[in-house]
Amino acid sequence: MAEAAARRRGRGGGGAARRAERSAVRIETAKYIERNIPNFEVLTEEALDIIEANAETVLEEIGVNFVDNPKALERWREAGADVDGERVRLPKGLARKLCATAPKEFTQHARNPEKSVVIGGRNLVLAPVYGPPFVRDAEGGRRYATMEDFSKFVKLGYMSKWLHHSGGTVCEPTDVPVNKRHLDMLHAHMTLSDKPFMGSVTDPSRARDSVEMCEVLFGKEFVQDNTVMTSLININSPMTFDDVMMGALEVYAASNQGCIISPFIVGGAMAPVSVAGTLTQVLAEVMAGIAYSQLIRHGAPVIFGAFVSSIDMNSGAPTFGTPEASMVTYGAGQLARRLGLPFRSAGSFCGSKLPDAQAAYETANSLNMGLLAGVNFMLHSCGWLEGGLVADFEKFVMDADQLGVLHGLAKGVPVDEESQAMDAIREVGPGGHYLGCAHTQANFKSAFWKSELLDYKPFETWEEEGGRDTRMLASERVEFLLANYQQPTLDPAIAEALLAYVADKKASMPDAFM
Amino acid sequence: MAEAAARRRGRGGGGAARRAERSAVRIETAKYIERNIPNFEVLTEEALDIIEANAETVLEEIGVNFVDNPKALERWREAGADVDGERVRLPKGLARKLCATAPKEFTQHARNPEKSVVIGGRNLVLAPVYGPPFVRDAEGGRRYATMEDFSKFVKLGYMSKWLHHSGGTVCEPTDVPVNKRHLDMLHAHMTLSDKPFMGSVTDPSRARDSVEMCEVLFGKEFVQDNTVMTSLININSPMTFDDVMMGALEVYAASNQGCIISPFIVGGAMAPVSVAGTLTQVLAEVMAGIAYSQLIRHGAPVIFGAFVSSIDMNSGAPTFGTPEASMVTYGAGQLARRLGLPFRSAGSFCGSKLPDAQAAYETANSLNMGLLAGVNFMLHSCGWLEGGLVADFEKFVMDADQLGVLHGLAKGVPVDEESQAMDAIREVGPGGHYLGCAHTQANFKSAFWKSELLDYKPFETWEEEGGRDTRMLASERVEFLLANYQQPTLDPAIAEALLAYVADKKASMPDAFM
């Protein structure tokens, strides 16, 4: 689509027109959000004490399973856990003690140092959708994702002002063999963007490949001393840690790379139907996972994750943007802060099949909740559709635009003399208007968040221009952005070495599609 | 549309089919929201002190205008204000002292006592869109509103579970003369619904008619002792109180009826471009308006209102769901609570021309903000479109469904033994699932908010059924609800007396269309 648009422009307009259009696209990335507003806290201290005590009881009495992972069981035994088959029971206090060595916050370096992010504290880092096997756009409908789609999403993420992170599996490139696609995905993040990114977790060997590719990109020494990836380690809720995910965690923790340790919960199926019960299980699972990361390496950077949706009890479908998911997220944020750990949750979650009103209600509910819950790393912050089965091109730019609202909210309310605006109120007086007054002239450019997508035109103009809905406006924006994409520069020697690494790795093994 | 649908059904199906369909519609109204969650507060005590001091300075130094209202100026003079022409300057402390006699909360009675609402405290009462001259639906497009449209909205509001209030001018019935339409509007609220409603404010005589109609509906004695209307008194920001609105306020306050005293602000035009400056002006205006209501009658029930949008500085269009409007709303809530007054703000605000993703993002941003800002009375909580120019039928039911999310959020997080769900966690254990466990069986029906509109079906089913978007689903729901509407019973003598009142009033004056 991008190529077609570029050709059309090439044929139709002159160089001046092209330049004018190009100059309208400013590739600018906002700094990660530093909140100047409080967190919204729904649980009392007493409630938090009860949930923490219950989580300790769960770890001690019930325990968690580490599956197909004798080495992990050995590590647990040495640490003082009660190991019975694959079941690991942790005496009260053990998990919390181990979690205490994880850093409160950490820096994930980008190859462009201006785009490095600090994860934790009062910060919020925004990363795009992760994992969908399908893509959708208005023109092509719903279809299996390809590497070409993947590259387009990385380009759109690179061009988004409000997105701080390039993400990981923005969609599954199903046209590349399963055992090789991580190489192409990492290569795309490393070369088409200069924002920070995530590593592969689908096999420990692929996690090692991810580290090696980072050594090519950043230099081996730099990677030894610094965190250059943050990767997603899901827990099989309830309370099961499988060998693939733990294998990837072991690689990353050992090399001091960041990991999100994240229960993946559809409430009522993988956790109790109640908020307090879900929080208890989430806390027990995360503490066990993070404790394990610290057994691998004291001080390994980790994030307290909580992916939570509720369920439609009629159909069994996961539901998003619901009050119960919000309450779990608010509560999990409080628990993470009490543990002194960075927190990951929320995103552009929705169950809708189309980027329509349902999608937007659900997404806005979740994005707002994520900001106020004190989330530090928001995966899936744009582009998610259909319960995560689909990465949608239009919704990607629609959501990415809304992320600007979060940046605006996080600023809080300055009450310095200029903001008090008493001179303006005196100047204008009863019955006047502020449009031309000195205070407005001095401040209007930065006073209001400005959408780059939404329609504010008078009705008549809007109608004359075709009465476009948000999806159509977004479709045009996708095409415009891709047509105007310009690749960030990269040292040619590094670019060549990355290509060679990928080619060598691919040549070293047969294709696998399962 | 309702009639057509009913006819279709009458022709096509038998009585049994009709009954089955009808029995699926349960007319049920949730109690007004009683928050079990904290308010979200963005301003520090120091910032609030500054804004309050500045507002007092504004009232003393600059003052407010009471236009074409010599009686009001006389009242102000007697109360100790400095009156110069139409300008009223209030010595520091005067407005605050007068505001202190207004009640912290008040009950607005509905003719069905189960639907009476308590406005103030930790409560949130939800009322529909107010004021649009146009309506829109998917079938008929955008057009001038008529009395038939008005009646349909009242019916939809009556049938909405999550709407506590029937509202006022849900749309302007432009096919009825300006000087008579308040009679038809009130008659519709009184007879097609049994929820509480609002009175006319477009002329003091129409406010008197509203009180008289209430005397017919509720009985003269009941109205003398009780509040049966809450009406909307807008301030012409900056700092101008016109005679029409003040005339209506005088009527309502004198008869102990509720009024929202509400600045109507497009930031940057009617108030400074800064949040702190806007809050200062809002506070000064509301304090002056509420102080005036208490000059009319000590103890008259009033609400601290704040209608605030931001502005697109390119086009001058008002914008909605923006971070700046949210910050003003959060701050205004804090100021209202410090004054000890009920607070009105937020709503289904959006600038979009269609009930699409833009509309839903903007609306969800505003609804969520309203709940967390501690709003007590939310006018416009469903059906608003195109900056308030349009009342949209599909969006009315879409938004009304989302109001269920607010009800769910307000519940907070119970942490009693049943909610802790420790037995469920023990029963299921690592690797199991909760779908069939005893705790889930006992709690799943009430555990999750359930949409009556949104789509959660599997992709294949959804596609087979036509791949409908939210607007199409909503369009079907509007038709279904109107076809199944059943009028609440009313004493025939009262019904007849109301009709006679309206007929007599209409006969007493010539039609006016301006």
Describe the structure.
Two copies of one chain form a homodimer. Chain A contains 20 helices and 19 strands. In chain A, strand 14 and strand 15 form a beta hairpin. In chain A, helix 8 packs parallel to helix 10 and helix 12 runs parallel beside helix 13. Chain A is globular and about 75 Å long. The N terminus of chain A is likely disordered. Chains A and B meet through helix 3, helix 11, helix 12, helix 13 and helix 14 of A and helix 3, helix 11, helix 12, helix 13 and helix 14 of B. Chains A, B: It is an enzyme of class 2 (transferase). Chains A, B: Belongs to the trimethylamine methyltransferase family. Chains A, B: InterPro entries: MttB-like_sf, MTTB_MeTrfase.
Tags for this model:
homodimer; 514 residues; alpha/beta; six-stranded mixed beta sheet; 20 helices; 19 strands; globular; transferase (chains A, B); methyltransferase activity (chains A, B); methyltransferase (chains A, B); EC 2.1.1.- (chains A, B)
